[in-house]
Amino acid sequence: MRILVTGAAGFIGARVRAALTAAGHDVVGIDAMLSNAHGASAHVPDGISEVDVRDASGVAALLSGVDVVCHQAAMVGAGVDAADAPLYGSHNDFGTTVLLAEMFAAGCRALVLASSMVVYGQGRFVCPSHGDVDPLPRTRADLDAGVFEHRCPVGGEELEWRLVGEQAPLRPRSLYAASKTAQEHYALAWAEATGGRVVALRYHNVYGPNMPRDTPYSGVAAIFRSAIERGDPPRVFEDGGQMRDFIHVDDIAAANLAAVGSELNGFEAFNVCSGQPISIGEVAAALAEARGGAAALVTGQYRSGDVRHIVADPARAAEVLGFRAAIRPADGLREFAFAPLRG
Hints:
Structural class: alpha/beta
Number of strands: 18
Shape: globular
Distance between the termini: 33 Å
Oligomer: single chain
Low-confidence stretches: none
Largest sheet: 7 strands, parallel
Number of helices: 11
Strand content: 15-25%
Helix content: 25-40%
Order of helices and strands: EHEHEHEHEEEHEHEEEHEEEHEEHEHHE
């Protein structure tokens, strides 16, 4: 198949492009080469065209004969304040609508969309007395006192996290999350209107070789790595007990390969995760131990708006797409401790 990959020079996009090429597909890559993603002096890699997905004519020129689009391009990060909203709306949402319109004009009816677990907001919680509940927002008084877990809105009991399934309501809590939710909604409406098919892959915490080092696109694993390399202890917020799912970038590429080869109709969304939850404190400790660096420093500090726990269920991706992550976090983080980083 002929496949267009947007964001093809990025950390994830480059790995997706390589996996698709290795599988025998004819891959066309585009990237806007934004300086906050690639650095001011980054060059356009061979085989990739410097095209912004918001540029309708630039996108249209490359869609001839394309069977599937793998849309990885996006502005990431939570956003500092409301003033950043137009940037997320422009790059992520307007860019996606331009891409969808040009796909329709070119007769391309298949999209694989890089979505995110952030669309779920707080995740899923259970009260030991009242069952599934929507958690109360964490209060500043509790956070200042080192009480980091959510409380039950009915009786105030401490809540327990559970795996989030794809049918959970979408409740974005950051500008980035709002833009990823909007991308899914535009893609769903496009599929309904055109008879097209969309596979939305809700990535969890992605890490791996060539992850950006010190940019807004850096994940917490890269931030910990950088601290250890400087001889500093990785600084962990709250008590380090925040639960996440860390998935290797090679598994992300494998999920895209499975999505491209699927024959699903309409709009379908899937969690893309390792299925092996791990705490933020355990990630910091694993990287520090692998490199022989200073032990992680649990600061007790917190950031307003941070999500306490978000861990999703991998079962549907395994059942429908045949995708199962191959790299255990314990093994992948050990490798990542010495892997090259960008920037």
